């Protein structure tokens, strides 16, 4: 994994389950920030030590970037250091992911979860460039995430497999300085 203090700290903190939080909305589809506070309290009381906020389970794709950041900031503030909070900074392009990563760091996230750009990217080298540029731009631990939609890209399909040897592309991503963890949604745990 990455060798920066941010990567090492993230890796050390992510022990045990990591819960992907759902996001709460009001009946009119506006953000239910009081609901996010209550959910955060419930997780803390239940002994959950690590959460991901506004990932795909948290429906980031149905929010504006500002709404997403309000949800993330609400959880960070409510958790008050009692949980490791990973903000999802995945976006359709690198510059936008960098901006969200900066905002996650500014509100106090312990790390960010990043996918390759979720609409398209230029093969494995483009994906590596994406992770490297984010790592170079913001000093925060990164969880590299391979969601089901990303794994449908031919360049990535097969990177996560039941084979006991790690594909070179995964080794390359792990060497990005701020990458401290992987999240895999492929179902192939080899």
Protein architecture, described:
This protein is 41% helix and 14% strand. By secondary structure, the chain is of the alpha/beta class. It has one domain: Alpha-Beta Barrel (TIM Barrel), CATH 3.20.20.70. It has a six-stranded parallel sheet. Helix 2 (33-45) packs parallel to helix 3 (65-79), helix 3 (65-79) runs parallel beside helix 4 and helix 4 (94-107) packs parallel to helix 5 (123-137). The protein is globular, with a radius of gyration of 16 Å. It starts with a helix and ends in a 6-residue tail after the last strand.
Q: Which terms would index this structure?
A:
190 residues; alpha/beta; TIM Barrel; 6-stranded parallel sheet; 14% strand; globular
Secondary-structure topology with pairs:
Elements lengths: L4 H9 L5 E2 L12 H13 L4 E4 L11 H15 L4 E5 L5 H14 L3 E4 L8 H15 L3 E6 L1 H4 L16 H7 L4 E6 L6
Parallel strand pairs: 1-2, 2-3, 3-4, 4-5, 5-6
Architecture in CATH?
Alpha-Beta Barrel
Q: Can you count the beta strands?
A: 6
Q: What portion of the residues fall into strands of 2 or more residues? A: 5-15%
What is the general shape? globular
Annotation field: number of helices: 7
Q: Per CATH, what is the topology?
A: TIM Barrel
Rg result: 16 Å
Order of helices and strands: HEHEHEHEHEHHE
Spatial strand sequence of the major β-sheet: 1-2-3-4-5-6
In short:
This protein has 190 residues and is of the alpha/beta class. It contains seven helices and six strands.
């Amino acid at each position: 994994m990455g060798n920066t203090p941010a990567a090492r700290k993230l890796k050390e903190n992510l022990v045990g389950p990591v819960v992907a939080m759902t996001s709460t909305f009001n009946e009119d589809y506006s953000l239910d920030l009081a609901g996010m506070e209550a959910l955060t309290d419930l997780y803390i009381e239940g002994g959950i030590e690590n959460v991901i906020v506004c990932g795909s389970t948290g429906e980031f794709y149905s929010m504006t970037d500002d709404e997403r950041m309000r949800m993330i900031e609400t959880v960070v503030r409510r958790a008050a250091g009692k949980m490791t909070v990973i903000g999802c900074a995945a976006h359709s392009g690198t510059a936008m992911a960098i901006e969200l990563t900066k905002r996650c760091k500014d509100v106090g996230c312990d790390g960010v979860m990043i996918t390759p750009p979720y609409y398209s990217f230029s093969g494995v080298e483009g994906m590596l460039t994406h992770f490297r540029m984010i790592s170079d731009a913001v000093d925060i631990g990164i969880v590299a995430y391979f969601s089901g939609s990303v794994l449908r890209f031919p360049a990535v399909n097969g990177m996560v497999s039941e084979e006991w040897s790690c594909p070179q592309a995964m080794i390359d991503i792990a060497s990005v300085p701020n990458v401290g963890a992987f999240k895999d949604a492929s179902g192939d745990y080899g």
